[in-house]
Design goal:
alpha/beta; six-stranded mixed sheet
Length: 479
């Protein structure tokens, strides 16, 4: 137990899982109307309790109310309602096109819920990153345990109070705690595990899941590169990058994992001037005490980020963006660092904070080479209007997604996933529904098909063999 948050007793966790499994086996979650009601309840929770949610997250790390509404609460409401609206379309059985002789077999793909699932949530966008997978699990007809982060105790405490008020507690439960509670959860068998976080923890989760052959969705982070074409409008690029980097004080992976900039040396100072102009417009007195700028979530991360920054051999540009700190309040102003080399401390790990290194490159070729020498990022950003450059970045690099000419924007109808070190498993509206859905194939062969099936029974004569050879071995293969 923390001073604020009551942890779920470890001995209760297996029973919680068993209770949810019993609910799932009862068939309660199968009717679409039941699922739709739960989705509407999710939307009601987010809408009615929006002020309480904003207050809780602000108490945890001063995340601005505008950011919480715009990036977390609002999308949660929209996605819950959209999922409820699309339930019939997503869940209806499919009938694939088959040969004429097999149509009477009624080939069907049923969209079946996987079962009882575990959702493990990080601290940085706790509302959206818990509700996004939960919405998909509800839509798919699964029961779910949501393990919230102990790093945001006010939010996690609030959700533990609100879930039973709005959702069916026999199907959806909160588990709060730290490593011991998560370890106990991972000892149990689940039908799917959805984790958002970092690669180190993801490996622990994937290893635990492998013992039960449990499928996973792992949304991880990584160092998201930003390539800025020398022909692009530097002031506009700087404005959009700075806006994204300042959101949540840079503590985002899904939307603004822009961890370093690749730009030609002759253009970097012009880009920096653009950053300074954008920063002054947003934070005239600096971000240190500005209510529109979040704090670092805890002392550990404050120390980690400042250590990376202090060990950097790059040049800190502090003429306008001072990079002031207040350790007691975990406040850290944005910092631009130029002249960063490939072996710099700022490139050791995902920064996950308001520090933006600039790496000078000779052009697109070197930028692509630099990106490809590193693990595949969750997001790759490029500011360019050159169609050839865009196509080369699409063809010659790998990332979960690639965003041209902006940051932080996302369309939930698109699939979202990492690749390689940045994770696997798609999500986003129907893609989240699909993550928690088993495609169960079915055929129903009528008695009348026995005539065409008769040749399969031994003893097969020469005629049956020739028919089989003609069906398979004489098919025309295009030259």
């Amino acid at each position: 137990m923390s001073g604020i948050l009551a942890y779920t007793p470890i001995d209760n966790i297996p029973q919680i899982r068993d209770d949810l499994r019993a609910t799932f086996k009862s068939g309660v979650t199968l009717p679409l109307e039941w699922r739709r009601h739960q989705l509407h309840q999710v939307a009601r929770l987010a809408q009615i309790e929006a002020d309480a949610i904003c207050e809780a997250i602000a108490r945890d790390f001063n995340k601005p109310r505008f950011e919480v509404i715009a990036v977390e609460v609002g999308p949660a409401i929209q996605n819950a309602l959209k999922s409820a609206e699309k339930l019939e379309e997503w869940a209806k059985p499919e009938h694939p096109a088959v040969s004429e002789s097999q149509k009477s077999w009624k080939p069907t793909v049923y969209k079946m819920p996987k079962g009882t699932v575990l959702i493990i949530v990080p601290w940085n966008a706790p509302m959206f990153l818990s509700f996004q997978p939960l919405i998909g699990a509800i839509a798919a007809g699964c029961c779910a345990v949501v393990k919230l982060s102990e790093a945001v105790p006010h939010f996690s405490k609030l959700m533990a109070e609100l879930f039973p008020k709005y959702l069916d507690s026999s199907a959806y439960r909160i588990v709060n705690g730290a490593v011991p509670e998560t370890t106990k959860l991972l000892e149990l068998q689940w039908d799917h595990i959805f984790y958002t976080g970092n690669g180190k923890v993801a490996r622990i989760i994937a290893s635990a899941a492998a013992k039960h052959l449990t499928p996973c969705s792992l949304e991880l982070g990584g160092k998201g590169p930003v390539f800025v074409d020398s022909m692009y409008d530097m002031e506009l690029a700087a404005k959009r990058i700075m806006w994204g980097k300042c959101n949540n004080a840079g503590q985002e992976s899904r939307f603004n994992s822009r961890d370093y900039i690749l730009i030609s040396k002759e253009k970097q100072d012009e880009l920096i001037r653009g950053f300074e102009k954008a920063y002054k417009a947003s934070f005239p007195d600096g971000a240190l005490d500005d209510s529109h700028f979040a704090s670092i979530v805890n002392d550990f991360h404050f120390q980690r980020i400042t250590s990376l920054l202090d060990r950097s051999k790059g040049e800190k540009v502090v003429s306008v963006m001072k990079g002031r700190r207040n350790r007691q309040r975990r406040r850290l102003e944005p910092v631009i660092v130029k002249g960063v080399k490939a072996d710099d401390s700022l490139l050791e790990e995902e920064i996950f904070g308001p520090v933006l290194p600039i790496i000078a490159v000779d052009g697109l070729n070197e930028a692509i080479e630099f990106i490809n020498e590193r693990p595949h990022p969750l997001m790759l950003y490029a500011f360019t209007e050159d169609p050839v450059a865009k196509q080369r970045l699409i063809n010659e690099t790998q990332s979960g997604s690639i965003i041209f000419n902006d940051t932080l924007q996302w369309i939930h109808e698109l699939p979202f996933s990492g690749v390689g070190e940045s994770g696997y498993g798609y999500q986003g509206l129907q893609y989240t529904f699909d993550a928690f859905t088993h495609l169960r194939s079915s055929i129903d062969i009528p008695k009348a098909a026995e005539t065409t099936l008769s040749m399969r029974y031994p003893p097969q004569g020469e005629q049956a063999l020739q028919l089989m050879r003609g069906a398979a071995l004489k098919l025309l293969i295009p030259s």
